[in-house]
Amino acid sequence: MTQYIPPAIDWVREHVEAYEGSGGVSGTTLRDTGLPCIIVTNTGNKTGAIRKTPLMRIKAGDGYVLVGSYGGRPKNPVWVYNLRADPNVEVRDGTEVFKMRVREVTEDAERAQLWAASVEAFPPYLEYQKKAPRLIPVFVAEPV
């Protein structure tokens, strides 16, 4: 069985534990914002271990937009590199879990559309992009 490595940041680890531990019944929103989240499970690109990350719930048809904002920090979150190395993920949306495949969105028109939907769902993304010295990566997770 592949090892699970919990998130290193306390509040993120606690969020994943609450969400997963309840079977998706509680812990489904970002802290005190009331905004819905999903849990993305992927494989670590260096460790090969299972990693779980709570991300904002941004629907795109029958898939989800995954935004690598990391709060506007200079570097991408580690999960961005994990998805680039292995695009096969599981997405937990509440009580439902879906096997999905991600792709990084680089085509300008599609990226602009998905970015606009992302900002509508979570307006701080605009501020994060202004602050970040990088183009924030955008992925879409689609059913396998």
Overall description:
The protein is an alpha+beta fold and 144 residues long. The chain has one domain: Pnp Oxidase, Chain A. It has a 7-stranded antiparallel sheet with strand order 2-1-5-6-7-4-3, with helices on both faces. The longest helix is centred in the C-terminal third of the chain and has 14 residues. The radius of gyration is 14 Å and the shape is globular. It starts with 9 loop residues before the first helix and ends with a strand.
Secondary structure: elements and pairs:
Elements: H1 10-21, E1 37-43, E2 50-56, E3 59-60, E4 63-67, H2 78-85, E5 88-93, E6 96-104, H3 108-121, H4 124-131, E7 138-143
Antiparallel strand pairs: 1-2, 1-5, 3-4, 4-7, 5-6, 6-7
Rg from alpha-carbon coordinates: 14 Å
CATH architecture: Roll
User: Which spans have pLDDT < 50 for at least 5 consecutive residues?
Assistant: none
In terms of DSSP E residues, the strand content is: 25-35%
Number of strands: 7
Counting DSSP H or I runs of 4 or more residues, the number of helices is: 4
CATH class: Mainly Beta
Main sheet: strand order: 2-1-5-6-7-4-3
How far the N terminus sits from the C terminus, by CA atoms, comes to: 23 Å
Could you please say which CATH topology applies here? Pnp Oxidase, Chain A
Report the sheet with the most strands, covering strand number, pairing sense and barrel closure: 7 strands, antiparallel
What value does the average pLDDT take? 96
Task: Output the structural class.
Answer: alpha+beta
The amount of helix comes to 25-40%
